[in-house]
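Page 37, top half.
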Amino acid sequence: MSITQDFRALKRLLDDKSFSPILLPLQSAMTVTLPSSSVQHSTHDPFPGQQIYICGFEDTVEVLSSLQKPKKVTIRGSDGSLYTMMCKPKDDLRKDCRLMEFNSIINKFLRKDPDSRKRQLHMRTYSVVPLNEECGLLEWVPNTNGLRNILLKIYKEKGTYMSGRELKNCMVPVGAPLEKKMDMYKEKLLPRHPPVFSEWFLKTFPDPTSWYTARLNYARTSAVISMVGYILGLGDRHGENVLFDSTTGDAVHVDFNCLFNKGETFDCPEVVPFRLTHNMVDAMGPMGYEGIFRRACEVTLKVMKDQMDPLMSVLKPFIYDPLVEWSKPIKGRSNPAAESGEITNEKAMTHVQNIEARLKGILKNKSKARGLPLSIEGHVNYLIQEATDEKLLCQMYIGWAAYL
């Protein structure tokens, strides 16, 4: 697609001399710097550094091949650089926007804590700008590759790649006995998908120092997002929603639509707390998830537990928020949120209570508490065991690709 041919009005708008400049919606431009001391508030600049405005658009617009056909647009900034944004249609990005704010707050707490600061624990965030209920702009994260693409490329080189048709034949019905699922997973899928993710690190980071730093970054960023994702009930972590930065090794997660344990309500329910498949463990080195990953998980969970009150105060507005569809409205009935602008929902209350319970270390079976609250170490150990349990992984939907 072309800006000059398909979006003439946009070009005319930018060419108009009376049109006021628009700030480029980058993560860096949206991060407020608070004053470090209690004096000199009047002279404090919350946005230090140069502000970048939109000067124009590159003519070519790339249409991506995924379901909603999002558009990749390149914007010329006032600093002379090019910035890429993704325009996503038919998707409510307000939830993603809220979650990015939540992630930024967690990053702030991680920077304050001495243990996590020493390990440079953080979560990669990007700007999300909802334009209305069903479209918005996302900051394009450069130099990233999806886990699925990385692994399939290596499997094709090794000649063990399985086509879509072969995978379809490996699908086991949801109601099938566990033994059958386990047999398919261990006998058919795993032998064709050996752990190879560590090879990507060796190819991408050829010298020893950068390789070691990238592996360290990978294990730590994966640990942080795993813990935050578990607390929030984040699901749908398939190979295309987990990206890796080819310059730093950081794990970058995208698409935060499946929140508050929504994955448990799917036709094929999600039964693992986060993604920690054999390939991901393999890339962490000879110790696997022991050491770096486990310790980073414990530090992150401790920080979230210590900061429970401020984190819950950010999440509680979700209860009264008409943006979040807790349950589909019954046909013929009007949505009460549309009339009053806010809604108190029992389901929302339950989800927030579940988050509170998880932060306290309480495990639940359906809605009943299961024993006493766990220590931080015990909680992390339980989660890692669950995430790597083959009996649970073999029950996951084939598209989630537990075998990758």
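Page 37, bottom half:
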Amino acid sequence: TESGLSMTKWHIIKGMKPPSTSQEWEEEFERYKQFPEYKYVHKDITLSDFKRIFYMEYFHRMWGRAIGLTFAIPAAFFLIKKWVPQHVKPRLGIYAGIILFQGLLGWWMVKSG
């Protein structure tokens, strides 16, 4: 998609709402202009182009959060109810670690620019 790091902030909860007003979009676009990706890859994009790549990245993040929650909520429920056999718990921990690592990697990519 080449949407890259169009979302310049990473907040677990506050990041779930995209800009809604013209002023918020302008502010977000100005923040994006400070990142190397804008300077070296998307130097000539317009606000309209930015919105398109922003929404690609936004839906990517929401999809990642949905995957994490789809795993975490049932896993926590089954663990609390003690319905997870002992031999499955290590695998559950590995899967949780992989999902967590992927989220942390995304956070680090945004943080590092």
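Margin note: The CA atoms of residues 16 and 27 lie 17 Å apart.
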